[in-house]
Amino acid sequence: MLDLGFVRGNLELVEQKLRARGADPALLLGDFRTLDQSRREAITQAEQLKARRNELSQQVGALKKAGQDATALMEETRALKDRLDELDKSAAALDEEMRLALSSVPNLTRDEVPLGTSEADNAVVKSWGQKPAFDFEPRPHWELGEALGILDLERAAKLSGARFAVYMGAGARMERALISFMLDRHTTKHGYTEVLPPFMVNSKSLFGTGQLPKFAEDLFRCSDADAEAVGRGEFKDNDHWLIPTAEVPVTNLYRDEILDEARLPICLTAYTPCFRAEAGAYGKDVRGIIRQHQFQKVELVKFTRPEESDAEHEKLTRDAEEILEALGLPYRRVLLCTGDTGFSSAKTFDLEVWLPGQGLYREISSCSNFDAFQARRANIRFKPAGKGKSEFVHTLNGSGLAVGRTWLAILENYQQADGSVVIPEALRPYMGGLERIVK
After folding, report:
1. What is the mean pLDDT of the chain?
2. 186, 114, 184, 189: which is closest to 340 by C-alpha?
3. Which of 19, 174, 309, 414: CA 20 to 30 A from 228?
4. Cis link prior to 213 (omega < 30° from 0)?
């Protein structure tokens, strides 16, 4: 969430940044100036009336002490109390209206983020690896997986409907191997602490990382979760939603806490399944396992001092890149433009892996710096040395990596003319020494 004082003092800049995202400031903020002015007027009037009430109380006391009639002043005091109650309620209602308005306003992108309206305006800043050269027509992963008997989309549809997958045999083992490989790399080489969080969270957690209230339709909610209450700004701590990413529970581990500065940066990694309704994705990526309702992911999350978040963002992105490099998968790093940057992010690098079976690059990790946006929503602070006042941390996260997309990238990049798939050397110890998947 944006800081109210910052919005008030920099409204033209905020509106400019929102337009750069392709958003309508009037739709998001409404008549912010009028609303803010009304709120401040109610507070000023309340302060003036409280001062008058205190003055009257002293006068009433003096009259009573002198044995004189204080009835008129006492009546005025009671009238003031009624008016104060009205002003307090009005100020509280205006506060809530402003809070709800700000809760639906996205983060402001950094100045170095390129202007643009879609992924076509993203900037490629790095490429790594050689695309494999085949002397045959490469096949997409859904054909390879079906032919090898390791991916069954038809039976998954029977079990759960569209956008689900069943992995079989070596396919299931490779999914599990990738999770272990990624977690081992991030904990032993990159210095992250592993976390195994719950796979369901409450509304307050989803509000903290920015999924609620704006993206409720993209989530799977349990029967005790009330989407209408969320729309009214009621974020509960006793309802449940399936997590769309481990970012949500891991970031909210420290909600409403003040962290010891000496612990920063805190670097955490977690494997979880992820659940997404994909409400706006009808007709997109209907073949294969690119876009699923349920998929596995290894997440990277950091809590940093504000002045260190840029450097930690670069480190986090490199940690994700090193997984791709260890597996020998060609990729590129892309700086997302203003119109393609996620709601909570100030700056995002996407890592896109090459998929020869489809002849294109696909996003396999988004590595984002949220500045204080999530920390302000979740109230995550630290106390800087030598300062008496706490400050908001900066939060960062990225996929390290999306497991299913890594799985399919291996199939497409390591496919052989006979339909078999060579297992990357770095992954073989996790596959019991298996070097190739054959039918």
Report:
1. 94
2. 114
3. 19
4. yes
The yes-or-no verdict on residue 279 having pLDDT over 70 is no
Q: How many CB atoms lie within 10 A of CB 114?
A: 16
**Does residue 265 have a cis bond before it (omega within 30 degrees)?**
yes
CATH 3.30.930.10 domain span(s) along the chain: 119-199+243-437
Over 90: is that where the pLDDT of 368 sits? yes
pLDDT for residue 58 is more than 90: no
Residues near 311 by Cβ (< 8 Å), separated by ≥ 6?
none
CATH number of this structure's domain 4-103, picked from the four choices 2.60.40.10, 3.40.30.10, 1.10.287.40, 3.30.2270.10: 1.10.287.40
Token output for 259:
């962290």
Beta bridge partners of 296: 273
Instruction: Reply yes or no on whether the pLDDT at 280 is more than 80.
Output: no
Which class is 119-199+243-437 in CATH? alpha beta
pLDDT digits (tens, 9 = 90+) for 399-421: 999 999 999 999 999 999 999 99
pTM score, whole prediction: 0.91
For 336-377, strand residue ranges (E) read 347-355, 360-369
Q: For 6-39, how does the pLDDT look when each residue is reduced to its tens digit (9 = 90+)?
A: 998 999 999 999 999 999 999 999 888 888 888 8
pLDDT (0 to 100) of residue 432: 97
3-state SS string for 76-97: HHHHHHHHHHHHHHHHHHHHHH
CA distances from 318 to 270, 313, 439 (A): 17, 9, 36
